[in-house]
């Protein structure tokens, strides 16, 4: 009955908003978008690439203007409300970026460039689920620079930074549950003299400090080398009012079977061999304590929990995309299939978006060296902190649409 009551409470917050979702404008996936530069920074202008990842293709135009040199990107039917240019990966490669509404139905992105450039490529892929507007820029000499002849006409109604409302920080009130796997009498996987339990605890403590520095609330399922049952871990997250549950692991699989970071979302039908092997490792601890989370649910409760997951599951998958996109941009080694599904018990919660992140595999020498390297961990901490902030902003925008 407690399970049924919990699910009913979750559903009260889901049913009405889902019935009232209006058709929204196209959205920019800020977590997957980026501005990158080729080669090393030697104090000279470098070729750059601006990638804007959208949830659907939109009409656009691209051109350059002078005094100062700027790239202008106009897009029709896209909503940039609540997204800050400073959240774009690579924004610090140029003097300034700003955006806002250009005219009714159109938004404009203005990128101030460090030198004269020319557009060598501007195209939009229309493939679902994430069309990409890709703009390549190459530095040129001043005499070869070819901006629009009339900058004044081209920039009419240009958004001014001071006129763009600064949204409330998306991390305000956000609570993240960090779940370092294993612990206590269960060290998890072992390799090269290191244990999974200690490695993921070290990482989780570093990630907690980074999140708290950004004003994000954090609840830890364990803060030392102690054992916490799987059921207790999800209960702690729920009791703390967590908005996101992130379970951290660094498992072992037979040699050559897995390497690189991998993120898992819930799927009770997942039948991939590695996922089955990992599930048996993750869940053996509760069976030792007589806690069987795989028992039969009441039929009605099962149906209601499945319905609740129609809201939480897509949100978990969106977060997984934020993480893997940011990892790729930061050069973090990824598994060949970085986003996978599995029936891990810590992902079962119907009311909290939940993912399990294998930071790497302790059975792989390169992954193990990364996990022991403070500089690599620092990069991964930045990836996750940025991803959580980006996901929180996406959540806030989603909720604003639901309220309309």
Automatic annotation (TrEMBL):
Swiss-Prot/TrEMBL GO biological process terms: peptidoglycan catabolic process
MF term (GO), any: N-acetylmuramoyl-L-alanine amidase activity
Residues spanning the signal sequence: 1-26
Keyword Hydrolase: yes
Any one Pfam family match given in the protein's UniProt record, by short name: Amidase_3
Record's keyword terms, sorted: Hydrolase, Signal
Annotated EC: 3.5.1.28
GO-annotated cellular components: outer membrane-bounded periplasmic space
Reaction catalysis annotation: Hydrolyzes the link between N-acetylmuramoyl residues and L-amino acid residues in certain cell-wall glycopeptides
Domain called MurNAc-LAA: residue spans: 234-389
Protein name per its UniProtKB record: N-acetylmuramoyl-L-alanine amidase
Organism (species): Paracoccus homiensis
């Amino acid at each position: 009955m407690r399970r049924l009551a919990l699910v009913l409470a979750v559903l009260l917050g889901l049913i009405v908003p889902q019935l009232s979702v209006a058709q929204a404008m196209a959205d920019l996936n800020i977590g997957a978008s980026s501005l990158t530069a080729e080669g090393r920074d030697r104090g000279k202008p470098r070729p750059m690439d601006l990638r804007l990842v959208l949830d659907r293709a939109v009409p656009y135009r691209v051109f350059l203007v002078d005094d100062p040199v700027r790239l202008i990107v106009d897009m029709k039917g896209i909503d940039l409300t609540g997204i800050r240019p400073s959240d774009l990966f690579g924004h610090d490669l140029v003097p300034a970026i700003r955006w806002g509404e250009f005219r009714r139905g159109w938004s404009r992105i203005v990128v101030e460039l460090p030198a004269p450039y020319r557009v060598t490529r501007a195209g939009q892929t229309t493939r679902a689920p994430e069309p990409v507007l890709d703009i390549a820029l190459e530095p040129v000499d001043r005499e070869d620079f070819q901006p629009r002849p009339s900058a004044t006409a081209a920039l009419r109604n240009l958004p001014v930074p001071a006129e763009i409302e600064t949204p409330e920080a998306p991390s305000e009130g956000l609570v993240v549950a960090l779940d370092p796997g294993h612990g206590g009498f269960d060290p998890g996987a072992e390799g090269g003299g290191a244990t999974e339990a200690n490695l993921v605890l070290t990482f989780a403590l570093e990630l907690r400090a980074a999140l708290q520095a950004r004003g994000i609330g954090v609840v830890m399922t364990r803060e030392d080398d102690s054992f916490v049952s799987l059921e207790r871990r999800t209960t702690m997250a729920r009791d703390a009012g967590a908005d996101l549950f992130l379970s951290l692991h660094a498992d072992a699989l037979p040699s050559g079977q897995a390497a690189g970071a991998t993120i898992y979302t819930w799927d009770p039908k997942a039948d991939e061999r590695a996922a089955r092997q990992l599930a048996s490792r993750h869940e053996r601890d509760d069976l030792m304590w007589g806690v069987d989370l795989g028992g039969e649910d009441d039929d009605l409760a099962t149906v209601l929990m499945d319905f609740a997951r129609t809201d939480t599951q897509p949100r978990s998958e969106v977060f997984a995309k934020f993480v893997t996109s940011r990892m790729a941009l930061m050069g973090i080694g990824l598994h060949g299939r970085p986003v996978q599904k599995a029936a891990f018990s810590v992902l079962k919660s119907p009311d909290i978006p939940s993912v399990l992140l294998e930071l790497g595999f302790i059975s792989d020498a390169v992954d193990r060296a990364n996990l022991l390297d403070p500089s690599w961990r620092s990069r991964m901490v930045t990836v996750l902190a940025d991803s959580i902030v980006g996901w929180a902003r996406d959540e806030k925008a989603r909720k604003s649409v639901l309220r309309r």
